[in-house]
Write a structure and sequence with these properties.
Its EC number is 2.4.1.-. The chain is globular. By secondary structure, it is of the alpha/beta class. The chain has helices at residues 20-35, 46-51, 91-99, 102-114, 131-137, 150-156, 159-164, 192-200, 211-220, 240-248, 272-278, 298-311, 332-335, 340-344, 357-361, 375-383, 397-406, 424-435, 439-454, 457-474, 476-479; strands at residues 11-15, 39-44, 63-67, 121-124, 142-146, 225-227, 252-254, 285-289, 314-318, 348-351, 366-371, 388-390, 410-412. Strands 3-2-1-4-5-6-7 form a seven-stranded parallel beta sheet. It is 40% helix and 12% strand. The longest helix has 18 residues, at 457-474.
Length: 484
Amino acid sequence: MEEASGGDRLDVVLFPWLAFGHLIPYLELGKRLAARGHAVTFLSTPRNIARLPPVPAHLSPRLRLVSLPLPAVEGLPEGAESTGDVPPEKNDLIKKALDGLASPFAAFLAGAVAGGRRPDWVVIDFSHSWVPAIADEHGVPCAAFQIVPGAFVAFLGSRSANAAHPRAAPEDFTAPPAWCASSFPPATAYSRHEAEWVAARFRPNASGVSDMDRMWEMDERTRFTIYRSCDELEAAGAGVFALLTDLFQRPAIPAGVLLQPESDDRHDGDSEVLQWLDKQPSKSVIYVTLGSETPLTADNLHELALGLELAGVRFLWAFRKPSGVTAPGTDVGELLPAGFEGRTRGHGLVWTGWVPQVRVLAHGAVGAFLTHCGWGSTIEGLMFGHPLVMLPFVVDQGLIARTMAERGVGVEVARDDGDGSFGRDDVAAAVRRVMLEEEGKVFTSNAEKMKEVLGDQRRQDQYMDVLDEYLTRYGRRKGGGGSG
C-alpha cells in the first residue's frame, strides 16, 4: 500500500445511513483512505459521532468527524439518532429525520467550498437520495458505498430490471429474479416468512418514500458503487460484480472486507468473558450472538435457550435485550426460561455486558459461531475460520445464510416456511451438526479455507488499490464536476 502524494491526494466526504451496522464500515473505509494519504471527512449526527470508536492517533490529522444536527421528528424519542435507539417499527422515522439533514448538509458543503476545501467525492449510502442534487450544485461527484453483499443488491435489482420483470407479492421474492436466474443457485432467495419484509421495501413507508426508490435515485445519480465485499465471499460462480455493473450500468467495485481484528479491542485482556474462555477446552465453545436490532420475540429467545441446553455443548451467549422484545423488565432472568442459567452454569455463560467480539472469535476455545448472519458478523466469523450455525431474520440475512450454506461453511436452523417459527429441537440439531457430528469437520475445513482467503492481506489491499484508482481517476479534479 502506497500513500498518495501531491495531486493524487483526494478530499473525500463519507456520509452513512444512521445505523451502526453502516457507520462502522464507513469509518473503516475512511481509515483505509486516510492511511493512503487522502483527507477524509466523516459526517453523522452528534450522538452517533460521540459513540464511535476513537480514530487512531496516526490517522486523526487526515480523518475528521463532523456532526450535523438531526431535526426533531414527531414520534421519535428525544435523543434517538440511530436505528439502535428505536424499536424496528420506528426505523422509518429515522429515515424521515435523515431527510431533515438536507439543509445542514448543504450548509456544510457550501462552507467547505467557500473555505477552499471543495471535496473531490461525496460517498453516500442507500438512503441518501437527496445528496447528489446538492453535490451537483457545487460540482462535486458522488459515489455509493453499499455495506451489504453484492448478491443482495443484485437480487433487489435496478429500476429498469424491476420495470421489465415486476415483483409485488411476497411470493415473487422466493426465487431468484429473472436477471439473476442464470447466475444464482435456486436456493439464493427468501423464505416465505422473510419475503414480506423484502416486498415492503418496494412500498412507501413512514418517511414518504420507499427504500427502493431511495436506492434507485441514489444509484442513478452516482458514478459508481463500492461494496464491502470481495469475489471470494459472494455466491460461488455468480460473477456478482460483473452482473451488478451490467444491471446498474455503473462500475461495481469491491473494496474488500474492511475488517481490522483490533477494531473492537476497547477493553483490557482481563475481560471476564475472555477469562471464562481461557478455562474451556480448545474449539469446544459455540459463540452465540444475534445482535441488538434483530426483531426477536420472547418465544424465539426461549426456544434458542432451550435448544442450546438440549444440544449439550459449551456456549458463550452475548445476550442483549432485543429492541423488539416487549417482555417487562430488563433483567436477563426475566427473558430466559426459568432455571436456564442455573442448569447450564457448568458449561454455558450468558453475558449481558460488553463482549469484545473480535477477540472472542479469535480465542482458541471457540469452535463455531451461531449468528443472525448480519454481513459484518458473518465476515468476522469466517475471518477466524469458524463454521456457522445460522438463524437469519431480516434484510440481507436470509440471502447470506443461503449463500454460506451453499459454500459449505455451516447450516441454517430449520424453520417453518410460513411463519418463521423454530423450536428447541431445530436449534439443537443445527448446533450438533456443526459442533459434534462428523459433518462438522467438513464445515470447519471449508471455513478454514475461507479464513485463508479472507486473511490474505495482500489480496485485500489489492481491492483497495483498485478503488483508490477509481477515486483518483474519476474524481472532480480528474473528471469534471457533477454526479451523473
